[in-house]
Amino acid sequence: MALRRVGAVTLTALAVVLAPTSTVVAAAQDPVPPESAGTQTVDEDPEFLELHIDNVTPSTVTTTSDPFVTVTGSVKNVGDRTVRDVSVRLQRAPAVASSEGLRTSLTLDQSRYDTVGMFDTVAGRLDEGQSKQFTLSLPLRSDTDISLDITEPGVYPLMVNVNGTPEYGGAARLDDARFLLPVFGVPGTPAVPPDISSPVAVTMLWPLADRPRLAAGVPGSVTEPVRLVDDDLATSLADGGRLDELLGAVEFATRESVDRDHTLRDSLCLAVDPDLLITVENMTRGYLVVDDPSDPTGSAHEGTGKDAASAWLDRARSLAASMCTTSVPFAQADLSAITEVANPDLTATAVEAPADIVDNALGVTSLRNFVWSDAGMLDDATAQMLRGDEATTTLVAANSVDTTTPRDSAHVIEATPPPAPVPANGETTPAATETPAATGSVDALLFDPSVGTALAAMGTTPQTPSYTPQRARYDLSDDSQTARLQDALGAVSWSALEPEAARAAGTPRSLMVVPPQLWTAGAEDAKTLLSTVSSLMRSGLATPRPLPAMLGRQPGSPEVATLEYPDQAAEDGVPAHIRDAAGTQTPRIEALNAALVDDPQAPLTPERFTAPLREDLLRSMSLAHRRDDERRSAEEASDVRADEVAETMDDLFGAVTVVSPGGVYTLASEQSPLLLVARNDLPVGITVRLQVDAPSGMTITDIGPTTLPPRGSRTLTVPTEANDSRKLVVQFSLTTADGQQLGEPTSVTVRSNAYGQALAILTACAGALLLFLAGRRLWHRFRGQPDPADEGYERS
After folding, report:
1. Mutual orientation of helices 576-595 and 631-654 as an angle, nearest 10°?
2. What is the structure's pLDDT at 389?
3. Nearest Cα to 246, choosing from 295, 185, 319?
4. Torsion of CA 573, 576, 580, 586, to 10 degrees
5. pLDDT for the residue numbered 506
6. What does 268-312 look like in DSSP terms, one character per residue?
7. Please, are residues 358 and 325 in contact by the beta-carbon 8 Å criterion?
8. pLDDT digit string (tens) for 186-208?
9. Which residues are paired to 83 by β-bridges?
């Protein structure tokens, strides 16, 4: 983590005296400056020690807290040599003075952490692979002893610094760990309370989402259980699982005995992925787990999460009924990619259908006309795509909207007047005959990107959102989960604790708490975050601001803001070949769906049969795990899903075909009908058209649309006129109404018993000869002359 370890890889040639005291600290300069004369550089970016923060107590300081900050952790030798005289100390930087500083303060040179203490010896010798625990405890403030010198509420960057002497080198700072400490009030005599004259309005989204789990390329069915690519979701829904803990944290924090005045409940809104609900609902009916995700119809075994899915879904319904609930785009799909595909059905499935799915699954009425993109930002084309006849509200990072003044919301697209009505005289204007354009506005609620970035770093799989500025990006893998939690607590608390700084910067007194949609925060992290937000409201530093009250309201300024979509968002988005696959397969799904027969008596409808395939295309465009360490597996899963949909569509179109009769088909006469068999192996009836490629000498009449029964066949009587007795090869194929090819073309060899033109000539010649001979006889008889043809014939 180069940005976090400035100077941590240099070894000084000068010996440094390390004071082995556990509780005494001194405000002194670092014995090993980051860059000084007499330093020697060893192997490029060497690693000797690894520092890990395990616990910070208290995680949030209040006026009733103990007046000490205690940090526990461990130091491990990860190098190739022994390190001696290993010691640690705690250092503090000035309080964070700007929102951007919530991230950039964690990348400052260690010399900026200028309130320091003396070192506490961890181990005299630490061999390769060895690890040692440590505990540091310092007073927040003191008039007589050395302390952290925290005298006012605020958010303070802290650093634990570890020094040691590797073999063949001198003493050096070998690692550090940094985190934020929110101080709501300073304990002691007298205590220093926070300024509560200007509380911040808090709105918090609580995401419940998962990566796509359903096996790809499997059409809908009413008898077959669904198939999952793995059984990890069962673990996540069960006791101690990620989704169980995210749900449980809200259940605990909003129950009557904890949230008596419902302030936390009012500030919260569940944000649920409809794809997760579809998967969980299907799990409650029993399901299979495929042995090979790339072979979704292959061998599979029974899943283990049926009971856990039922219990979790019941709890989700109960919780959703008591608080605000909204949906996120289906499968956390990339809205920019969907906009590029530009298919109305795909767009509706991604953006419009989720609210209905959430309502049906949870038994609630979720928010409408609210869109939260997983990317946390929109481009201009996507904003136009989201525009409807009513006002639409989106949620984006504040740095993705270019406004002249800081604000908490902005106009993105202004509403336009509806088209003029048709004149009363019945005359139509060109505009009246066109498809009416959407006229509603698109507005954006804005959240602080520094807060969103800190929340995204929480949990077991930290991620860096696309909207995070380059100067605030660094490798998260070197930070412990505890340190990342502290950073999130500090980020959430900062605007409430720094009203003067916020006012000076023109920042609105509001806070949108927006974690990533796929959030890996565990139980303790989630509970601690909710407890911190609740504490802000109980202490008077914050007030709840319900999300429904913010929808449809006019932003504070009539200015229309400009959207910014950085290159990082495109890099983190869905690649071109996945977009192309969706653009290719979506029209095929639509054509098949239109051709299938909607039988009111049949439980399996065309839409139910094809919907999973359209949803699979959205799952292939999911942004889940595309911004964390699991990106490679997410990309591979996306490729497999797109390939499986294409293969399934080929199979479905190939399941409807004309059966080859084999051999030579003989017509009894030149106008005898041709009898063919069309077969449908799909579980839903389908309407087809017979396409014919006949040679000259044969005319075949179009028989029009024909309906084939589910998993059955039908004989097609094809009117045929053959004017040639030769063997003729005719090509037959089936298509949908819009011309999509079904199955493979079939060649039929036809022979007719008609003699055609030769027979007509012979008949004409014979008729002419007959007339000539009859006329000749009559001529001779009229003249009384014997006919030469009668010579030798004697009359009796």
Report:
1. 30
2. 81
3. 319
4. 0
5. 61
6. EEEEE-HHHHHHHHHHTT-EEEES-TT-TTS-EEE-S-HHHHHHH
7. yes
8. 999 899 999 998 899 999 999 99
9. 126, 166
